[in-house]
Amino acid sequence: MAQTEKKGGLLRKSSASKKPLKEKVVLMYDEIFTTEDPSTCNPRFWEELFLMKVNLEYLEGKLEALDGEELMKIKDNINCLFQHCIQALGEEHPIRVVNALQTLCALIRGVHQKNKSTSGFDIINMLVGFDKAELCMKNLMESLDSLLCAEGSESLKSLCLKLLLCLVTVTDNISQNTILEYVMINSIFEAILQILSSPLSRREHGYDAVVLLALLVNYRKYESVNPYIVKLSIVDDEATLNGMGLVIAQALSEYNRQYKDKEEEHQTGFFSALTNMVGSMFIADADEKISVQTNEAILLALYEAVHLNRNFITVLAQSHPEMGLMTSPTSPVPTTPVTPLGTTPPSSDVISSAELPLDADVQTSNLLITFLKYSSIVMQDTKDEHRLHSGKLCLIILTCIAEDQYANAFLHDDNMNFRVNLHRMPMRHRKKAADKNLPCRPLVCAVLDLMVEFIVTHMMKEFPMDLYVRCIQIVHKLLCYQKKCRVRLHYTWRELWSALINLLKFLMSNETVLLAKHNIFTLALMVVNLFNMFITYGDTFLPTPSSYDELYYEIIRMHQNFDNLYSMVLRLSTNAGQWKEPASKVTHALVNIRAIINHFNPKIESYAAVNHISQLSEDQVLEVVRSNYDTLTLKLQDGLDQYERYSEQHKEAAFFKELVRSISINVRKNLAFNTLSQELLLKEFSTIS
Fold first, then answer.
1. What pLDDT, on a 0 to 100 scale, did the predictor assign at position 9?
2. Where do the structural domains in the chain lie, given as residue ranges?
3. SS3 state of residue 418
4. Which helix H or strand E contains 550, and what residues bound it?
5. Which UniProt keywords apply (predicted)?
6. Kind of pairing, strands 10-13 and 21-22?
């Protein structure tokens, strides 16, 4: 007997001697794509349709093949199909519900595809008809809400979320997606929260739920009142917020683990062996090959939670009990294969034993540590556009954290010490730090380490000015908190001072190239004012008096850089060019640094001459500094401990609009509705009472 093959909705015998036969469902689709009502000849047409396995490929292909005019001719049948799909969602038979959900996905995608090339019809009118749109969409959203909240099939919940993601992402710019008005009016916010608060639902659907929420929050967020923004900002249920934190932490952990695996694989490879033989001349090029796709969708969710909900700040520092577990979840294995959105989402809150080596201190890990590690990876390479966007979003999230009073309280808490192993970019002039030697310190030290690491490693021709500005602003905001609350942080401040001075040196060395693209004086002024902050208020927040002495030592030791900077800004501020005003601001800001240099340098030279020493040691210079503070005169500078608070709408709207567009395209591209095989569904539903 000849074997039967299936392709494109056709059933054909391998002998090819007979005309191919079409599946019954395909024949039924063909009836819908005529101008006649298919239920005229067969009153049970719609009832039978939803018992048939959906052929997504054929249905979407059929819609795409029609032009706008042809589609308008069968509008009544499309409306009818859409309405019967919604009716089928209320059926008790789960197979009907599954087929209705998948058919809705195909319809929405297919009709939206047509709209890209044809503007002759309205999407809502085409799908459901203007006269019935409000009622139909209300019924659809209520059915989806019921299915998501019910104690029913996990597969159905998965399909509901995929339908909603399909609905949200059919247009690149989600704010132009008019169907979302009905998702705003008929909110599914509570259903999303319910998924996040339940351990079982969260494991199965947490990732899709969090991404969906992040996208919905960004619908016309600057033009109208978005109920999802309002509701997210007032959530105070601990279980829900922790659930959201767990989903985000797990997704970021998965990224960190994948990067760690690739890094180890790379280091043990042939190229690594070759590099070790010839020396480290190729190390930067070699590292560029270590690349894991970034996950902007989950990062956007973290940003919205931190930015909108002050209660979420507590989740950042909370250790996740599920993350410390070695055992696998006891829940049944999901029947729905996990669909990647951006990057492959994790299928569980529980970090597997294979992930544990990533963090030697996994029992005391938390979302903030996981996020800092993620940031340290994506911020290494900002040449790639996605990583640049990810790096920028990481710095925006850290900016929000650095401005929050409660976040600062736990960042600086001496009783909350952690060992945070950040990823460091391989560089020729420094050795790789040994992970085991990392000290346990307050979390703010890891944030400062991350900022110092960025400053040191991104002085390059394609200078990421915007990221540097954000980086310096974060350091400044943390110093403002320390000054205000008189927190004496035991940190290796010299590393920060050295990095800042080297940054100034880089700006001066590349003045011509950089000025063609950037106003480098804005950044130079911020760096100089950080030093002014230490000079003016350092005695209130530096850990010891000797730390303050070391600050002066570094300024004196590196005085040539400050002298060169002064010469440069003086030259440009006395000319009538475009840089006159910004350069003169830096000139005025340097007044105290120049006073320190001009006061102590003669004293040091005199000390050396009297004692017949050609080159003074650090201790000898510090001795001169300590004995000559009394005669030093400094000017009081206003506003050093003031800063402009972060504002998304006024400054970042264009960035987020582009970011959300990129995420929408990525989610749509990776969304698969036919991942559920009919056999698996039948097997699952046969056990449902």
1. 56
2. 24-185+658-686, 294-320+363-427+437-486, 492-648
3. strand
4. helix 545-557
5. Membrane, Transmembrane, Transmembrane helix
6. antiparallel
| pLDDT for residue 667 | 93
pLDDT at 682: 59
* β pairing state of 21-22 and 417-418: unpaired
pLDDT at 541: 95
Q: What is the pLDDT of residue 288?
A: 46
Q: Which residue has the tokens 């506003």?
A: 639
Q: Is the dihedral of CA 589, 594, 630, 620 positive or negative?
A: positive
Distance (Å, rounded) from C-alpha 400 to C-alpha 473? Answer: 11
Structure token digits, residue 213: 């929420």
Strands lying side by side in the sheet with 4-7: 4-7, 10-13, 21-22
- H or E element: which one contains 603? helix 591-610
Q: What are phi and psi of 473, to 5 degrees?
A: -60, -40
| 320 within 8 A of 246, measured Cβ to Cβ | yes
**Single-letter amino acid, residue 243:** G
Residue 490 contacts residue 547 (beta carbons within 8 Å): no
Q: From CA 231, how far away is CA 248, in angstroms rounded?
A: 19
Task: Assign 94 to helix, strand or coil.
Answer: helix
**Residues in CB range of 633: below 8 A, 6 or more apart:** 595, 599
Q: How many helices (H) and strands (E) would you count in the chain? A: 34, 5
Check residue 18 and give its pLDDT.
Answer: 55
Return the structure tokens found at 678.
């009919």
Say how far apart CA 31 and CA 41 lie, in whole Å: 10
Which region holds residue 492: left if phi is over 0, alpha if psi is between -120 and 50, else beta?
A: beta
Candidates 476, 477, 412, 470; CA nearest to 446 is 412
Please tell me the distance from the alpha carbon of residue 247 to that of residue 238, in angstroms, as a whole number: 14
Phi, psi values for residue 67, rounded to 5°: -90, 175
Q: What residues does 12 pair with on adjacent strands?
A: 5
The whole-angstrom separation of Cα 123 and Cα 164 is: 16
**Spans of the chain, pLDDT less than 50:** 1-7, 12-15, 117-120, 270, 274-275, 277-289, 321-363, 676, 688-689
Among candidate residues 221, 227, 121, 249, the one with its CA nearest the CA of residue 183: 227
Which residue, 205, 246, 191, is CA-closest to 331?
Answer: 205
Q: Which of 656, 539, 532, 550 is nearest to 592 (CA)?
A: 532
Contact 531/500 with Cβ under 8 angstroms? Answer: yes
Alpha-carbon radius of gyration of the chain: 31
Angle between the N-to-C axes of helices 520-541 and 591-610, in degrees from 0 to 180, rounded to the nearest 10: 60
Q: How far is CA 103 from CA 50, 89, 145, 573, in A?
A: 9, 11, 18, 68
Q: How far apart are CA 486 and CA 508, in angstroms?
A: 34
N residues, the chain: 689
